[in-house]
Write a structure and sequence with these properties.
This protein has helices at 20-31, 59-73, 91-97, 128-138, 140-148, 151-171, 181-191, and strands at 7-10, 39-42, 78-80, 100-101, 106-110, 113-117, 195-198, 205-211, 214-220, 228-234, 237-243. By secondary structure, it is α/β, with parallel strands linked by helices. The structure holds manganese (II) ion (MN).
Length: 245
């Protein structure tokens, strides 16, 4: 792998059997650009739902695991962050794919730019209802309880939660579901970051934030609703790329 190989960032594929186009684009990504990368960072919500690592029994998941394994076997370091949909991704998934699961915040030195990575949901601090739900779902006792339930029951709960989240989204003001400026400034300050890369909001854009008198860049990753998208960062800068399904 030459030092010129780009590092790739992507998020919000929301893979599920209902989204064959996103699945095709993701397999194309794994078979193509991912293999020539210096590293690949999946920044959350790779799956539209994840009810435990025994979900690999679903055929579409088995195929995704195989594709990811191909990337890892090609010698490309592979990292996966939890999203708000797939926060139960765990050790067995990591072992099967060869990926490492990331903590909520990660700092990288990318060609001299101190870069902070996260999914993005922790930055939506105005949505107090969601943050309370998130804290509940991250409680190890709650997760242990869930893990003891039979598969079909977890699947039903996940379906019910997705419907509930859709209904809540319909009645919440748009602004509440976006990241809040204070949370961005705080995260940048806490990690001494020059650049922040995140997904989650499905509002792809590049922003400049002035924090403590210095301009910092914030790149919001594209979701995979229409086609596949990733960000390629090399010594020359950060570039948006598209991959068809
Ligand atoms: Mn998300």
């Amino acid at each position: 792998m030459g030092s010129s190989a780009p590092t790739l960032f992507l998020s919000d594929q929301h893979l599920s059997p209902e989204r064959p186009q996103a699945l095709r684009a993701f397999h194309a990504f794994c078979a193509g650009p991912a293999r020539d990368a210096a590293a690949v960072y999946l920044l959350g919500d790779l799956f539209d739902w994840w009810i435990g690592d025994d979900q690999v029994r679903e055929p579409f998941v088995a195929e995704v695991v195989r594709s990811l394994r191909g990337v890892a076997d090609a010698g490309v370091p592979l990292y996966v962050a939890h999203g708000n949909r797939d926060f139960l991704l765990s050790d067995r998934f990591a072992q099967a794919t060869g990926a490492s699961i990331l903590p909520d915040y990660v700092v990288l030195d990318l060609h001299g730019v101190r870069t902070l990575l996260c999914h993005g949901d922790t930055l939506c601090t105005d949505d107090t209802e969601y943050q309370a739900h998130r804290a509940r779902m991250r409680d190890p006792a709650v997760q242990a309880c869930l893990a003891r339930l039979p598969y079909f029951l977890r699947r039903l709960i996940a379906r019910w939660m997705r419907r509930r989240s859709r209904n809540l989204k319909a009645i919440k003001p748009e602004s509440i579901m976006d990241v809040t400026p204070n949370a961005i400034a705080q995260a940048i300050r806490d990690h001494g970051a020059q650049r922040l890369i995140h997904g989650h909001t499905h509002r792809p854009a590049r922003h400049v934030h002035e924090v403590d008198g210095t301009a910092r860049e914030r790149i919001v990753l594209h979701d995979w609703h229409d086609s596949g998208h990733y960000l390629a960062v090399d010594a020359a800068g950060a570039h948006e790329r598209e991959i068809a399904g």
